[in-house]
Amino acid sequence: MQEIRFDDIEGLKKQIKEEHSPWGPEQQVTQGMIDAFAELTGDRQWIHVDVERCERESPFGGPIAHGFLTLSLLPKLRARSDFAIVGAGNAVNYGANKLRFLAPVPAGASLHARSRLLSVEAKPKGTLVTQEIQIGIVGQETPALLYEMVVLYNPPRK
Fold first, then answer.
1. If you placed Cys at 101, which of 37, 67, 72, 135 could pair as Cys (CB 3.0 to 4.6 Å)?
2. What is the CATH number of domain 2-154?
3. Is 146 exposed, middle or buried (0-12, 13-18, 19+ CB in 10 A)?
4. pTM of this prediction?
5. Which DSSP symbol is given to 117?
6. In whole angstroms, what is the distance from residue 65 CA to residue 51 CA?
7. Helix/strand number for the chain, H first, E second
8. What is the pLDDT of residues 29-48, one digit of tens each?
């Protein structure tokens, strides 16, 4: 894997491509994970936690994961990349340019992620990197989630 320093703006810009990386490792979303997320966040909407009602009334045929649960799995899904950004003191979540939930994630489904670099910009405090990440349901063409993640890579403290 190629290592590129966080402050090598031109080197990072060479990694901007139209195609996404290969899919990363798979992670199953269990009903237990959905229930724990509901308990943690207070979002106990029946389409997530009431299995019997979902089987009777839900247009999805069973419970689905919260969209934000799906998003929160990004660190675990670890989208693969051909390069690693190195040399930064830290990387800070700077926000999102875009977040779309495109398909429901049924309980029991397996997810995987892939990504591509969209932009790199030098900032006074570091390097701002924008990446498009897709979270997909294994075996399904439409991604469950599309996310433009913005990260600020800061230099090491002196």
1. 67
2. 3.10.129.10
3. middle
4. 0.90
5. E
6. 12
7. 6, 7
8. 999 999 999 999 999 999 99
